[in-house]
């Protein structure tokens, strides 16, 4: 239990999938399918974090007869400064608590730059937490031990 409490984000983070804030909603939907992720991070022209797009954000924008190819993601995304972020040295258990308390599926891992701007370097999701659980249980098995 004490070891679990000390696990850091950097050991488990995965690669982020980002789109540009002037990209269209149509392109974001394509990226979500092609990259097989449930959350996209949106970056501005200088590659700093500008927003987050969830599956439901994109679904909501798709309802009705709107032209998704001419609608930029910047008008539907959740934007800075309302984004929950984490850093690679944060404790995994604290970030897991943020996912639950804020009822979100993913948190970008960031490097802080000048003027409260962030570079996106990773991604932590509910799936990350499920993988950690499985990894921990497997690594608890004695060497050569049999899994039931
Ligand atoms: P879904 O909307 O598909 O259920 P989420 O629960 O992750 O997926 O997202 C819920 C809302 O919270 C969405 O509007 C999304 O833009 C926003 N959101 C997702 N991740 C974050 C985050 N890390 N920080 C702030 N808002 C977020």
Automatic annotation (TrEMBL):
Cited InterPro entries: CBS_dom, CBS_dom_sf, CBS_domain-containing
Keyword Transit peptide: no
Designated name of the protein: CBS domain-containing protein
Keywords attached to this entry: CBS domain, Repeat
Database matches in CDD domains: CBS_pair_CcpN (cd04617)
Domain CBS: 12-68, 77-140
The keyword Nuclease is assigned to this record: no
Species: Geomicrobium halophilum
């Amino acid at each position: 239990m004490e070891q679990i409490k000390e696990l850091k984000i950097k050991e488990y983070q995965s690669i982020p999938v980002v789109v540009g804030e002037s990209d269209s909603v149509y392109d974001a939907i394509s990226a979500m399918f092609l990259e097989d992720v449930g959350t996209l991070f949106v970056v501005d022209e200088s590659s700093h974090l500008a927003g987050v797009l969830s599956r439901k954000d994109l679904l909501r924008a798709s309802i009705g007869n709107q032209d998704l190819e001419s609608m930029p993601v910047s008008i539907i995304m959740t934007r800075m400064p309302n984004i929950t972020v984490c850093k690679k040295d944060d404790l995994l258990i604290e970030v897991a608590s943020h996912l639950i308390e804020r009822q979100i599926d993913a948190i970008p891992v960031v490097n802080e730059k000048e003027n409260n701007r962030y570079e996106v370097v990773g991604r932590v999701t509910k799936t990350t937490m499920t993988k950690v659980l499985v990894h921990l249980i497997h690594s608890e098995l004695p060497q050569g031990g049999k899994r039931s």
